[in-house]
Amino acid sequence: MGKRKFMSTRVLKPGIRIDQSIIAKDGRILIQKGTILDDFQIDYLLTQGIMGIYIYEGVPDLDEQQLNISAATQRVIEQNRREDPVKVSLSESVRKQVGEGISHLFRNTESSDFTKASNTIASELENTIINNDAIAVDIRELKVSDEYTFRHSVDVATISLIIGKKLGLKSEQLHELGMAGLLHDIGKSRIPLEILNKPGKLTEEEFEIMKLHSTYGYKILKEKNQFSPQVLLGVLQHHEKLSGRGYPMGNQGNMIHLYGRIISVADIFDALVTKRPYKEPYGQREAMEILLAMGDDLDINILTAFKKSMILYPVDSIVKLSNGKLAKVVKNHPDYPMRPTVVELDTGRVLDLYGDFKCNSLVLES
Q: How far is residue 123's CA from residue 177's CA, in Å, rounded to a whole number?
C-alpha cells in the first residue's frame, strides 16, 4: 500500500501518479485522478497557476489495481450497482482559494479585512455545497491543504454544512454554521507554536493551555463586533459535551448551541481519520464506530444526520473483507454506511452486509 502526499508542482517529475482530479471551472475533468503525469501535463499545471497537488506514492490503492475480474462477475456487479447520492465536489480552484483564505485568516487575525474575508471564504464553500444537489460527503475526497490546521478547518466546515443541510437549516443559518466551522480553531493562532506543533503527546500543563483555544477564538471574533452571537457560540462551544465533560465551561445539553453541537461531531470525526505526527489515523469504519459510541456526549439527532451524510465506501470502491477476500462496493445504505452491499471478486457472490443476517460476522477492513 502507498500513501497520499501533497507536492509542489515545481518539483513534479514525469512518471508521478496524481491523486486528485484537475477540474476546470465548467466542471470538465482536465486530468483524471490516477493519471501518470508526463512533461506536458506538468507544464500545463504550472501555466494554470496550480502550485501544488496531491500525488500517490508507493503501490496503488486496491481500487486502482488492475484486477482480473471475470465477465460473469462483472455482469453481477453491473446488475447490482446503484449510484451513490450526489457528493460534495470541491473544484481545484475552490480548494485553493478556501485553503489559502483560511491560512491568511489564521496568520492575520488583526487584519482590517478579517470579517469580510471570512464571509467571502464561507460563501465560496457554501455555494459549492449548498447551491447544488450535494447531500453527502466522501471523506476521502476532502483535504484542501497540506497544513493540518487549515485543512482540518475546511474539512470541519464542509462536514458541518452537509449535516446542517440534512437537518434542514435555513440559508442564513447555513452561512453562519459554515463561518463557525471555518473559524472554530482560529484561537489556535494564540497558542505557542511549541505546543501547537509538538510532535508528541502534550503534557497535562500543555493540554490546559491548548484547551484555551476555543476561548481565544471567541474573544478574537467578539472583539470584531461583526460576528453574530450564534457564530461566537459555535466557536466557543465546539469542545463542549452534552454530558458536561467538555470545555471551556462544562456546559450540558441544550446549554450548548446547535452550531457547537454540529461542529463537535465534524471536528471529532475529522480528527480521528487524520494522520498526525503523534498518532496514526483511524480507519473510516473505526472512526464512525467511535463516534457513534459517544452517545452520552454528542447530540443523537446530529449523529444520525452525520451518519446519513457520510459515504465511507463509495460505489465502485475495492474493499477487503474480514474473510480475507476482495470485493467491490455496488450499493450503499444511507442509514448504515459501514454495511454496504458488495460483490466478491473471485466468486461473484453478492453480499448484503446490511440486510442479510448471514453476513453479520463480516466487516470491511479497508
A: 11
